[in-house]
C-alpha cells in the first residue's frame, strides 16, 4: 500500500517493486530497481527517506526516524528480513543482516556487512568495509574482496527481483494437489561459507 500523508506522496520509480502487503507512507523516494518485500514499513511521515537505486528492503523490515530527521539508504544497500533502520544512514553496497537494529544517527560505511541480530547503538559511525557483529555491535575485521563479491552477487538477485515480480507475480488460489512435474528452483547463490570454498 502506498499512502499520501500531510501532502507528501511517495515517489516510486516504475522499475521498482513494492509488494502490495508493504506500506510506504509520505515523504519517501524510491529509486530504480528497488525491492520492497511484504510486511515492510517505510514511514516517511516525520522526515524524508531516500532509497537510492538497487536498494532492497526485505520482508518485515521497518524504516523510520525521529521527527525532523531524514535518512538515505545508498545505492545497492541490502536490508535483510526483519531488520529495523531507525534514523540511520546506510552506505553504498552495504549488507544489513536479518533482525538487526540500527539506531538513530548511526552511519554504516560503504561496503560494510552488519551481521544478523546485531544492535548498532545511536550515533555509531561504522567505517567503510567493516564486518560488524554483536550486541552492542563491534567491528571485528575488514570486509575482504571475496566477501564483497559474495554480497554484491546476492544483491544483484534482489535487483532482478522487481522485474521478475512485475512479470510473473500474481494472486492465485492454491493448488490442492502437488503437480507430478513440480521442479525445484535453481541453485543460483551459495552461502558465504560455500562461496569462499570455490
UniProtKB/TrEMBL annotation:
Coiled-coil ranges per UniProt: none
One protein family per Pfam: Hexapep
Entry superkingdom: Bacteria
Record protein name field: Phenylacetic acid degradation protein
Source species of the chain: Bizionia echini
Source taxonomy: Bacteria, Pseudomonadati, Bacteroidota, Flavobacteriia, Flavobacteriales
Amino acid at each position: 500500500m502506498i499512502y499520501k500523508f500531510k501532502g507528501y506522496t511517495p515517489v516510486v520509480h516504475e522499475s521498482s517493486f513494492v509488494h502490495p502487503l508493504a506500506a510506504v507512507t509520505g515523504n519517501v523516494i524510491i529509486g530504480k530497481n528497488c525491492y520492497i518485500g511484504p510486511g515492510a514499513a517505510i514511514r516517511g511521515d516525520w522526515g524524508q527517506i531516500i532509497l537510492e537505486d538497487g536498494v532492497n528492503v526485505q520482508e518485515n523490515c521497518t524504516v523510520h526516524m525521529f521527527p525532523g530527521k531524514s535518512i538515505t539508504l545508498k545505492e545497492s544497500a541490502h536490508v535483510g528480513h526483519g531488520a529495523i533502520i531507525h534514523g540511520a544512514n546506510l552506505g553504498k553496497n552495504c549488507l544489513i543482516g536479518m533482525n538487526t537494529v540500527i539506531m538513530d544517527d548511526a552511519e554504516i560505511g560503504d561496503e560494510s556487512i552488519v551481521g544478523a541480530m546485531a544492535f548498532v547503538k545511536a550515533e555509531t559511525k561504522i567505517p567503510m568495509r567493516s564486518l560488524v557483529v554483536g550486541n552492542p555491535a563491534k567491528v571485528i575485521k575488514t570486509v575482504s574482496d571475496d566477501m564483497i563479491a559474495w554480497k554484491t552477487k546476492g544483491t544483484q538477485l534482489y535487483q532482478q527481483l522487481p522485474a521478475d515480480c512485475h512479470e510473473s507475480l500474481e494472486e492465485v488460489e492454491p493448488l490442492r494437489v502437488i503437480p507430478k512435474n513440480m521442479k525445484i528452483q535453481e541453485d543460483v547463490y551459495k552461502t558465504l561459507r560455500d562461496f569462499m570454498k570455490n
